[in-house]
Amino acid sequence: MKISYYPGCTLKNDAKNFEDSTLCSLESLGIEVEELPRWNCCGTVFSLSTDDLIHHVAPIRNLIRVKESNSDRMMTLCAMCYNTLKRANERVKSDPESLDKINDFMYREEVEYEGDVKIFHLLELLRDEVKFENIADKVKRPLKNLKIASYYGCLLVRPKEIGFDDVENPTVLENLMTVLGATPVDFPYKTECCASYQTVDKPEIVADRTYHILTSAQELGAEVVAVSCPLCAFNLDHRQKETVQKYPEFKNIPILYFTQILAVALGCPEKSLRLDLHYVNPKPILKEKGFI
Amino acid sequence: MRINISKSKIRDTFVVKVEEISGQNLLACYQCGKCSAGCPAVSEMDILPNQIIRFAQLGLKDELLQSKSIWICASCFTCNARCPKGINIAEIIEAVRQILLRKREDHLKIEKLSDSEKEDVPPIAMVSSMRKFTS
Known about the structure:
The structure holds 2 protein chains of 2 kinds.
Chain A (H helix, E strand, L loop, with lengths): L2 E4 L9 H14 L3 E3 L21 H12 L4 E4 L2 H16 L1 H10 L12 E4 H9 L1 H7 L8 E4 L21 H8 L3 E3 L17 H17 L4 E4 L2 H9 L1 H7 L8 E3 H8 L17 H6 L4
Parallel strand pairs in A: 1-2, 1-3, 3-4, 5-6, 5-7, 7-8
Helix pairs in contact in A: 1-11, 2-3, 3-4, 5-6, 8-10
Chain B lengths: L6 H4 L2 H10 L11 H5 L10 H9 L3 H5 L3 H4 L5 H5 L6 H13 L13 H6 L2 H11 L2
């Protein structure tokens, strides 16, 4: 059955490199996805208050759109969208009363939501359905000698109820990087928060975190860092500017979405990587290794 | 810091509100400190996560509402993942923020951000920051 694809706001602009590299990779792997019609903002953060149902309306409305497009599976790329949509879905599934209230609020929708859409992250789909060994067969450019540290951040793996790997020591990204021929670099900061939305009004905190996270990866030999969240990507890549200002000894390191790395390995054209959207240019290292 | 404890503070509606909004039992905490030991944001905090729970148990409303910590926590859920009593500390901190935000006391002053501060960050950052820091 066809899988609905939920992009979310940032995949259409700042993280176009995430979307384009994903779509090219999925095509190479022969997986068909269809962008969800009339999707709306997921809300970006799951509402943690017990009594705040109104903020679950936005994510649940997207699940109604999935039903309307005759699908019951939805795939997301952004870790924040994944977390918010999946947690809202779990909340209404375990609490029929709040589902009724949310449906009542959306009385103008033609379809009522019944808690029956399954939400996936792309990594889950690749690991559990496509299977990594099948991806290995389709690798055209093995990423020989490229040392990659995988950074998960928070929302892909926490809380346990919605995460699809260990909450503090996930390995799915490292396993994928290994299949692509790269050398994974394990580092202790892989699930340490990048300070998230503090980047708007407290960028100095993000600069500190970026310094610690990336310095640790570099000390262990990483040449690039793989991410799966557009906010982590912004903080770890673009905030390297502020990091250098605060810590002059800091050395820049390219940040890539795991899908860009996948796209390189699967032989996607360079234009699907949208390397122009990066602050720290990943081109030199990819060229040096002969991948582009 | 000198702290006054009183029956009236402990029985204040503030304690009830924090428990209700967060859905957590504050008295389940036995102060092991694991939340603060693992929190990546403690270096910026004035009251540590385990202290936030203790303060909430004691109804130290003013200390909590004026603390810097409640706006430093970015809900990364490391504390929740590590708590041996299964307490969702991030939800407790959210409840304290909500008590202020529900009185329209916003933390983020959007009008004070410059155009470049707004334009330089991706939409995901602006939206999540507004969701967490404004009413």
